Amino acid sequence: MTPRKGERPPVPERLPAPVVDAHTHLDACGAKDSADVSTMLDRANAAGVDRVITVADDLAAARWAAEASTWDDRVFAAVAVHPTRTAEFSDADKAVIEDLARQPRVVAVGETGLDYYWDYSPPAAQHEAFRWHIDLAKRVGKPLMIHDRDAHADIFKILTEEGSPETVVFHCFSGDLDFARKCVDRGYVLSFAGPVTFRNAAPLRAAAAFVPPGQLLVETDAPYLTPHPFRGRPNEPYCVAYTLRDLAHLRGVDVAELAADISTTADRVFRLRDVTSDHSIGDRLR
Fold first, then answer.
1. What DSSP line would sit under the chain, residue for residue?
2. 0.85 cut: is pTM over it?
């Protein structure tokens, strides 16, 4: 029987070593409460994906992500206002994001950056919000998680003008080999999602083959960007196992070695091993 487009891909064989999904949206995947989150993480764990970072794109999602990170020790959070939602970004909104960004299980400021594909927010508003998020990442001492769509030059320009935080992660890296070289030279970390598995993505695949192990992450950006051969079907953190296996083949390395390298990088970049469990945070956020 041919699977329907709306069906999730099958859970793949468990990876030989655990890996971190560095960027997902558990709420957009359909999780509403702690039981939903645990079910999704159990499914991910069956595929060898032992931890995830669930990422916000607006205030409601930021509050939810910070709280969800207290429900399950396998979940961490990142908070920001997505560039496409910055047309109205008030001081009150900034205060909420800053408060959440200081929570111990919130491990990054993001996703923030620039998006010139959609016409939802004027460039000037995006630039102002991006600069504010850069400053926030520096003040709270956490990595900056960047959304970059059709905006490579201006992303670099603003990072140069503001000064990059200690750690910068390009989520769902979308550049070619030349742009990857420039990012690597600056010490940035590049995270690859499902599109790197697409067979018509030769420039992106060349970039992924080049990035040094210590600057490479893998992600789903679920529920979007489901990897080959399930493009167009719902994505979930367990599907990062498909992307990782494809990356290992592309880079000519052992799957277990790549998974271990990526998890080591995620632990270092987001300081995951330093994060303590604090299930009282959820009560404070309600």
1. -PPPTTSPPPPPPPPSS-EEEEEE-TTTTT--SHHHHHHHHHHHHHTTEEEEEEE-SSHHHHHHHHHHTTT-TTEEEEE---GGG-SS--HHHHHHHHHHHTSTTEEEEEEEEEE-SS-SS-HHHHHHHHHHHHHHHHHHT--EEEEEES-HHHHHHHHHHH---S-EEETT----HHHHHHHHHTT-EEEE-GGGG-TT-HHHHHHHHHS-GGGEEE---TTS-PPTTSTTSPP-GGGHHHHHHHHHHHHT--HHHHHHHHHHHHHHHHTGGGPPP-TTHHHHH-
2. yes
